[in-house]
Amino acid sequence: MRDDYGAPAAKVSALAGLYYYASRAWENDEYQIFSPPEGNYYFARQLLAHLPPAALHPAHLVYQIEARKKGFAVLVLDTNREACLEIETKAIVFAAPKYTLPYVFPADAPLFRTVEYAPWAVVNLLFPKDSLPDTAFWQNETLHPAPSAYLGFVDSASQHQSPQKRVLTAYFNFEPRQRPQLLKWAENPQTLVEEALREVAHYFDVSASELTRHTQAAFVNIMGHAMPIAAPGYLCQDQNQARTHPRLVYAGVDNGCLPLLLEALDSGLEAVKQLRSSGLG
């Protein structure tokens, strides 16, 4: 379950485990599934297409929310202009990761203090189009005993019909106690790149040195707090029931949800319902 939930079965709640297996009807029946080549970015792009450009403010970082008599003052850093802004609003849907609350809105930080996030690292390896055997699937997993963090890799060649380049995305899932180690890899990611190359070389039954010669570039993305871990007692704990302000509502998968796109979308819809029930139509 580590690739979906960020933790092994021993740490995941029974309810999450039941969903993991019950949702896989295609193992027994013919099942149609829609999986766009660009992944969840496809769905994000469709959502963005329905928003007016003036409603989007990329490169803006919310660093503090202050409750006031008629709503909120949101303090924002415009990272492009390196300027601070203050935005007044009557209501907020807080969809950011909740581990930012101690800094952004401390009043509600205790509500999410028990949420534990899985550390991840992703290594994207770039190769010429025809430099590797054409034997991989979209997702290629490797079963390793603990404490190995390597899970497998995704092959772009199975997503695009005629790719000009081939990208293998190797992914690692760590235990929360290993999070400090990510800081060292962020400063010197060579160790992660070398491990990814060794694992991929083993899969294709080639030497690591040969695979390294074909590697044109490596891009490392380290996520100290990726998905929330659905540990026992976590699911269905909607902290909106205990929030301190009726017009600040929480959305996102780290509010008692599974780390899935549909759960994220549903939490946003539920947040809007909560605001409407507070008198904001």
Question: Summed up, what is this model?
Answer:
By secondary structure, the chain is of the alpha+beta class.
What's the structural blueprint in terms of helices and strands?
Elements (H helix, E strand, L loop, with lengths): L1 H4 L8 H9 L17 H10 L10 E9 L2 E8 L4 E7 L2 E3 L6 H4 L15 E9 L10 E3 L8 E6 L9 E9 L5 H9 L2 H15 L3 H7 L2 E7 L24 E3 L10 H17 L4
Parallel strand pairs: 4-10
Antiparallel strand pairs: 1-2, 2-3, 5-8, 5-9, 6-7, 7-8
Mean pLDDT: 91
- The H-and-E topology, N to C, reads as HHHEEEEHEEEEHHHEEH
Q: How would you write the strand order of the largest sheet?
A: 6-7-8-5-9
> Between the first and last Cα atoms, what is the distance in angstroms?
40 Å
Provide structural commentary:
This protein is an alpha+beta fold. 27% of the residues lie in helices and 23% in strands. The strands form 3 sheets. A 5-stranded antiparallel beta sheet has the order 6-7-8-5-9, with helices on one face. The protein has a 3-stranded antiparallel beta sheet with strand order 1-2-3, with no helix packed on it. Strands 4-10 form a two-stranded parallel ribbon. The longest helix has 17 residues, at 261-277. It is globular, with a radius of gyration of 21 Å. The two termini are 40 Å apart.
List keywords for this structure.
single chain, 281 residues, alpha+beta, 27% helix, globular
